[in-house]
Design a protein that fits this description.
Strands 7-6-10-4-3-13-16-15 form an 8-stranded mixed β-sheet, with no helix packed on it. It has a 4-stranded mixed β-sheet with strand order 2-5-9-8, with no helix packed on it. The protein has a 4-stranded antiparallel β-sheet with strand order 11-12-17-14, with no helix packed on it. The chain is built from 10 helices and 26 strands. The relative contact order is 0.10. With 509 residues, the chain is an alpha+beta fold.
Length: 509
């Protein structure tokens, strides 16, 4: 991700209180005798049904996500009217209870909830404002909570399906930041990182609960919907004035990587390395402008596979370039999203390819291997900056050593103001981007390039399609290198409030 927004978060702590009681021995004996005479109230059984937690416990986003269940699949049907951005939707969430549930929550924001069923039976529901995180814009950054009460409690380990029918408007009021991005032709695209997926549909909006996805996107004939994964078909609706496009994502994906759109866009298809399916979405009136740009993707995938000695982790990849309305770049899983500004000078040089490599790198780091919580986002952004810098160095666009030296100097102060790379106080900062790339550069300087490449390649293979933590990264580095000193080395680089000395560069300050 390349974003300019920084989000600050506050975490409240509830003190624990202990109550001490003293009593005479005689009183203790009397109470013991009384206990024999009066039946005691049995403590609740450990697996007794109870409400699911309204948050997943993320250190930076305590109100995001929910507890009590594990999502296995999302099946989203969304009918969008371009221009007005009115929509109707149905989200089917297939999940397994992780403890007995009397009720459970989904994250939502800005939708009117029409109906909720659990396993086909009507369920009670209510929408409340979620706990505020205190973003820099003063908004509540965790949206709303949709609390669902099934007719009967759900047993521990039981598989169930909740279906939510809802409607709304893409430009309607939200309590948190909106994940809808509007194109001047009336279309839209989603960019929902970090906690904006709930503005598109009710979800469990935490990176720790990944699931497979199916999308069924309906739009007027002549408009092209896009989504993560492979298109599996399209079919007319009603009188044929609308068409539904179906997509399937077979690999698990975190909600923050959902990338859907409806636009005046054209799909370009090709084959990448070892027959990998490539599909891109570009503005229909700018196909010839963007065709030579998206055609560079195959070369970049081959380059990344060589760096990691690891195959691209999904069945399909592509770029989506918007005509306007969006200025950033986002690593939506299998379909990276780009604003047009990155390619403004494409006729003069190819330095824009560093941004393409940045988002491509995320397909391994962040999309396939996803951090277990947001405080460990350096595991996403550090590799993306690092490999984009390696690419730029090889192409002669920018010296990697000079880039890392400048970043090393800046990181020292940032550690104290915004937190070290492994423990940021908020997201979007220098510490988890260039600062985290400095950590990886230091690791490479310490181990040598060959061992460093083995560590990184092992990481994306060992934890593919799952979640992992900073502790896992450190353990993997020690295991692959056979060097136990890397545990302390990486701990200092990730968590110290001052820069450790840079190996091989004693003159860097």
């Amino acid at each position: 991700m390349r974003h300019s927004m920084r989000l600050a978060w506050l975490t409240t702590r509830v003190p624990e209180h202990r109550l001490r009681m003293r009593g005479a021995t005689a009183l203790g004996v009397s109470l013991a005798c009384l206990a024999l005479a009066v039946p005691a109230h049995a403590a609740p059984a450990p697996n007794s049904p109870r409400p699911g937690a309204p948050g997943a416990g993320d250190p930076l986003f305590p109100g995001a996500g929910n507890g009590g269940y594990d999502v296995r699949n999302y099946d989203l049907s969304l009918d969008v009217t371009p221009g007005s951005y009115d929509y109707t939707g149905t989200m089917k969430v297939s999940a397994v209870a992780t403890h007995g549930l009397t009720s459970f929550n989904l994250d939502t924001d800005g939708h009117t909830i029409d109906r909720v069923t659990v396993d086909g039976r009507p369920a009670g529901f209510r929408v409340t404002e979620g706990p505020g995180g205190g973003g820099e814009d003063g908004e509540s950054t965790t949206g709303q909570e949709l609390t669902i009460t099934p007719k009967k409690p759900l047993r521990d380990h039981r598989a169930f399906q909740v279906t939510v029918d809802y409607h709304g408007n893409g430009k309607g009021d939200r309590t948190g930041p909106n994940g809808w991005w509007y194109v001047s032709d009336g279309g839209f695209a989603s960019a929902v990182q970090t906690t904006r997926a709930d503005t598109i549909a009710p979800v469990n909006d935490t990176p720790s609960d990944k699931a497979t996805w199916n999308f069924h996107l309906t739009a007027p004939r002549g408009w092209t919907p896009g989504a993560n994964g492979e298109r599996t078909g399209k079919r007319p609706v009603g009188d044929g004035s609308k068409v539904t496009w179906d997509y399937e994502l077979k690999s698990p994906m975190a909600t923050e990587l959902m990338g859907i759109s409806v636009g005046r866009q054209t799909e370009l298809r090709a084959k990448g390395p070892h027959g990998l399916a490539l599909r891109h979405l570009v503005p229909s009136d700018q196909v010839e402008l963007y065709r030579p740009i998206v055609e560079k993707t195959g070369e970049q995938i081959s380059w990344m596979e060589k760096q990691l000695d690891a195959a691209y982790p999904f069945d399909v990849y592509g770029m989506q370039i918007l005509k306007d309305g969006y200025t950033a770049a986002m690593e939506n899983q299998t379909l990276s999203l780009f604003g047009p500004g990155w390619f403004r000078d494409a006729d003069k040089n190819e330095e824009y390819t560093t941004t393409m490599v940045h988002e491509l790198t995320h397909q391994w780091f962040g999309d396939s291997v996803t951090p277990s919580d947001w405080q460990q986002a350096w595991l996403n952004e550090g590799p993306a900056v690092y490999y984009a810098a390696r690419w730029a160095d090889e192409k002669g666009y920018e010296s990697m050593e000079e880039k890392m030296r400048a970043a090393y100097s800046e990181l020292d102060d940032v550690r104290r103001t915004d937190g070290p790379p492994g423990r940021p106080t908020e997201l979007g900062g220098f510490n988890i981007y260039d600062g985290a790339a400095v950590v990886l550069y230091a690791l490479g300087q310490e181990t040598g390039r060959h061992t460093f490449d083995r560590i990184m390649g092992s990481w994306v293979k060992r934890y593919a399609h799952g979640n992992a933590s900073s502790a896992d990264f450190i353990e993997n580095a020690v295991r692959v290198s056979g060097d136990s000193s890397l545990e302390g080395f990486l701990t200092h680089w990730l968590y110290d409030t001052e820069n450790p000395p840079m190996p091989g560069h004693p003159d860097w300050t």
